[in-house]
Design goal:
This protein is about 25% helix and about 30% strand. The protein has about 260 residues and is of the alpha+beta class. It has one domain (about 10-40, about 60-215): Sandwich (Immunoglobulin-like), CATH 2.60.40. Strands 1, 2, 3, 4, 5, 6, 7, 8, 9, 10, 11 and 12 form a twelve-stranded mixed beta sheet that branches.
């Protein structure tokens, strides 16, 4: 399965504190009820490539598990805090980007905790940045280590990915994430095949309960990550150019007529 490369959460404006003024105040004024729980998706039994079962239509259309790993340029989960001046809400979000085994960005996760001491309200939101090419209407479901799933919905899409979220998340879900091993995020692709991203939760609890990152350190991390992404993109471009040049050089040789005697 191929993915359209999304931007990282660290560089996504909708997940930055500057863009929260449009959504934080209404969320605190009218707290959302937790999304209805749905059964957690069962992981399919592994099938060895080349076996009859692996070549059946059911194997090609059944649930697919996509394992992801942490973005190499991001040492750990990152916690960022600030205040929404319009509503007086204290906002913290803990985020991390994830890539495929080949190092291509796949998705990102951000868990928000928003508190307003004056209104005595507290709201938790789990937000995802997911690849393009997914069915929006079914929304998403996510669960921790096979527990009951929480439903979410897609909010908005951009050329580089789609945002989905679950608002009013129960404190128990966050507690499970802090203690859990794997976050399973299930969606449907364009053929209505269920795809589950298996996201490692190692280090999430420590970051969520720990202090926020220094803004200057965050800025340096973002610059470093941006430079790394640009380097990867340039290396890929050069590799494709070399492959294209080699193919162009081989074509005349393959089609050349034998020399006359």
């Amino acid at each position: 399965m191929s993915f359209t490369r999304p931007a990282t959460l660290a560089r996504a404006a909708l997940l930055g504190l500057a863009g929260l003024g449009l959504t934080v105040a209404p969320a605190l004024a009218q707290p959302k009820k937790p999304a209805a729980a749905a059964p957690a998706p069962a992981a399919p039994a592994p099938t060895a490539p080349g076996t009859p079962a692996a070549n059946t239509p059911a194997a090609q259309t059944g649930p697919q598990i996509v394992a992801v790993k942490s973005e190499p340029g991001q040492a750990d989960w990152t916690k960022v805090c600030g205040k929404d001046q319009a509503s007086g809400t204290d906002i913290c979000y803990t985020t991390r980007d994830f890539v495929s085994d080949q190092g291509q960005p796949v998705l990102a996760v951000a868990v928000y905790e928003m508190k307003n001491p004056a209104q005595k309200q507290e709201v938790r939101v789990v937000r995802y940045l997911l690849p393009l090419g997914l069915l929006l209407q079914p929304g998403i479901r996510f669960s921790i280590d096979g527990q009951a799933a929480t439903a979410g919905r897609f909010a908005v899409c951009f050329p580089n990915g789609c945002f989905a979220e679950a608002g009013g998340v129960d404190a128990g879900v966050i507690a499970a994430m802090k203690k859990g091993t794997t976050l399973n995020v299930s969606v449907q692709n364009q053929t209505q095949r269920e795809v589950t991203f298996a996201v490692p939760l190692t280090g999430f609890g420590k970051a969520f309960d720990g202090p926020a990152i220094d803004p200057k350190v965050l800025e340096e991390q973002q610059k470093k990550l941006q430079a790394e992404l640009e380097k990867r993109s340039e290396d890929m471009r050069k590799k494709l150019e070399q492959q294209g040049g080699a193919a162009a050089g081989a074509a005349p040789a393959a089609g050349a007529a034998p020399a006359a005697k």
